[in-house]
Design goal:
Blueprint: E1 27-33, H1 41-49, E2 56-63, H2 71-81, E3 85-93, H3 109-127, E4 153-154, H4 163-167, H5 191-195, E5 201-202, H6 205-219, E6 226-228
Parallel strand pairs: 1-2, 2-3
Antiparallel strand pairs: 3-6, 4-5
Helix pairs in contact: 1-2
């Protein structure tokens, strides 16, 4: 879609999103992970704080090869409430954030080629003034997200450096005591595991083993990216 553009990181809790105003002739890519088949509530809340001002939007939901269910529908709703005009959508596969053996290595070269081609198609569509969007699959979730209960814990190798606390999207880790995590705030995104310099944060092997067995049937076979334009 071109090298020019600006990045707004929705995962930063202190970013002034309410002050971000988009141009009506611009085209944004709004990307979120799919957790349990829906947009993580903090991400949806932060998207709604933006001022789309009629800016076009390509919606990108990334899921771990199980199912994205109502993620794109929910993302379409949040983007519309923020004043964006969704014109295209993608359900893209990436390595599962908890059971990393599923979709390992994805997005791969095939995925990246498909996504690049689709990005060009979406940009061309917007330039032509076409603002239509096909009906997206799935349905909007009802009720509050029940969340997950898989909370990464710090092991003996934890140096209490605080990197995980600074990177946590929902401030579930206390900077003054980073070995602890707030179970009520944690959304099981695994970012703290990914950024830990000493690889000290991890999930219980028993829980990840059980999750792997539970997801095996749904995740074992390679799924394709799905494009809507």
């Amino acid at each position: 879609m071109g090298p020019d553009g600006d990045m707004v990181d929705l995962s930063r809790p202190h970013t002034d999103l309410a002050g971000r105003k988009f141009d009506s002739d611009g085209l944004a890519v709004i990307a979120v992970p799919s957790f349990g088949g829906r947009v993580p509530p903090p991400a949806a809340e932060r998207i709604r704080q933006l001022h789309g001002n009629g800016c076009g939007a390509m919606l990108l939901g990334v899921y771990g090869n199980r199912a994205y269910e109502g993620t794109l529908r929910e993302l379409e709703q949040a983007a519309g409430q923020a004043g964006f005009r969704p014109i295209a959508a993608v359900a893209a596969v990436a390595e599962h954030s908890i059971v990393r053996e599923y979709a390992s290595g994805r997005p791969d070269s095939t995925d990246m080629r498909e996504l690049a081609q689709f990005g060009k198609r979406a940009a061309e569509k917007w330039q032509k003034g076409d603002t239509g969007l096909p009906e997206l699959p799935g349905r909007l979730p009802e009720g509050a997200d029940r969340g997950m209960s898989m909370i990464p814990r710090a092991g003996r190798d934890c140096s209490a450096c605080g990197v995980c606390a600074g990177e946590c999207p929902v401030q579930a880790i206390d900077p003054s005591s980073p070995r602890k995590a707030d179970k009520k705030r944690c959304i099981s995104c695994m970012r703290c595991v990914h950024v830990c310099r000493t690889k000290a944060r991890h999930l219980s092997p028993v829980l990840t083993g059980a999750a792997a067995l539970m997801l095996r049937k749904a995740c074992l076979q390679r799924k394709n990216n799905e494009f809507f334009i």
